[in-house]
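Appendix B, record 7
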Amino acid sequence: MKLIDKNISQITIPTPFAVGDTHVYLLKGDTLSLVDVGVKTKEAWEALTSQLKQLNYTPNDIEQIILTHHHPDHIGLIEEFPRLKSVVGHKYINPFLIRNEGFIDNYIEFFRTCFHVNGVPDYFHSELDKERLAFEYFGRGELTEFIDQGQKLPGHEDWSVIETKGHAQSHLSFLREQDGIFIGGDHLLQHISPNPLIEPPHEGQNDRSKSLLQFRSNLIKCKELRIRTVLPGHGPIFSNVDEVVDHQLSRQEQRAGKVYQFLKKEPASPYQICKELFPKQYEKQIGLTMSETIGQLDYLENEGLVKNDLVNGQYVYEAK
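Structure tokens (predicted):
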């Protein structure tokens, strides 16, 4: 637990995931709010309640939950606050909280089809069962209010909502303009580069989003926001925003360059490129590594450097 100032406290919660601990933030104002809530495990709940107690609060005191995005290490414990008046976040979080009948099946089926058209062998489809199991770490609930770019946080009018899609289609961050403090969820991290993850189309959309292109655009946007201090979802608090953004953009461009050089030699499927990019990781992390690979191809296609064809129902990319 760390006091940021008289109105903000950082609470650190363990997760069972490779990313490690996640940070949530207690905000005082007209409403007592918690920004994100941690993953749905006994260990996370004990850590959260213990640190709230150090701040002289209990879960019964929390009036509002504000969510940065829908991933389980951020929404898992949402059911555990009996006196909540409101739950706010991007509208795309709601399907993951409500999980109507068929939602998980449709979610898995999107990735099954995505794997196939991108050349992933059928024996990897069993990995999708792990995606199904991951929903055990999600809480259930429903947003009471949708927020988006340009609005103010309810109960905290000194905080502006910033759209930061890329890592998730529901991702929002929050900026206190008077002092440049930025609650960035998983959008701005100093110690690792967030994965821009592909997702099924949301209601009203026909195609999946181009997550890496969104992520890059929203990284660049952060350089214009006069951010002085980032309170991240993972890792250390930091202030060198321009340096972190430039480093992440550069690393991504280097990886895209590697993909382009590979495709100049011969056409390849996204899966073949994935094996080239992540020879040590792809077998155990096929979902993450394929998301990253597809993102690099989206970037190169947007730059006019590659094109793709559908050959026997599967994508093949080549350098122009």
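Remarks on this record: The two ends are 52 Å apart (CA to CA). The mean pLDDT is 96.
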